[in-house]
Design brief:
The protein is of the alpha+beta class. Helices cover 27% and strands 24% of the residues. The chain contains two helices and four strands; from the N terminus they run H-E-E-E-E-H. The chain has a four-stranded antiparallel sheet with strand order 1-2-3-4, with helices on one face. A hairpin with a 6-residue loop joins strand 1 and strand 2 (50-54). It is flat and about 40 Å long. It comes from Gossypium arboreum (Tree cotton). This is Reverse transcriptase Ty1/copia-type domain-containing protein.
C-alpha cells in the first residue's frame, strides 16, 4: 500500500516472536490491547476472539482467529477507519 506521497511503506519489526512457544499468546494479547485501548472495541463475553465496536449509527465486528482477521460491519466508513 503506497503512502500519501506515493512512496512504499514498510513495517519495522521491533521484536521477533516467531518460534517461541508463547508467540501466539503474546501476539493475541498485543492485538487485544490495541483494539480495546486505541480503537474502542470491546471483547465479546461469549467468544474471546470476537471484538465489537458499536455506536449509535453502526456496528463493527472483528474476529481474529490464528493468523486470519475478518472484519465486517454496517458502515463502510467505520470499516475503512478500522483498516
Amino acid at each position: 500500500m503506497p503512502g500519501a506521497a506515493g512512496e512504499k511503506l514498510v513495517c519495522k519489526l521491533n521484536k521477533a516472536l516467531y518460534g517461541l512457544r508463547q508467540a501466539p499468546r503474546a501476539w493475541f494479547y498485543t492485538l487485544k490491547q490495541f483494539l480495546v485501548a486505541k480503537l474502542g472495541f470491546r471483547a465479546s463475553k461469549s467468544d474471546p476472539s470476537l471484538f465489537l465496536q458499536t455506536s449509535s449509527t453502526s456496528q463493527v465486528f472483528l474476529m481474529a482467529y490464528v493468523d486470519d482477521i475478518v472484519l465486517t460491519g454496517s458502515s463502510n466508513a467505520e470499516i475503512d477507519s478500522v483498516v
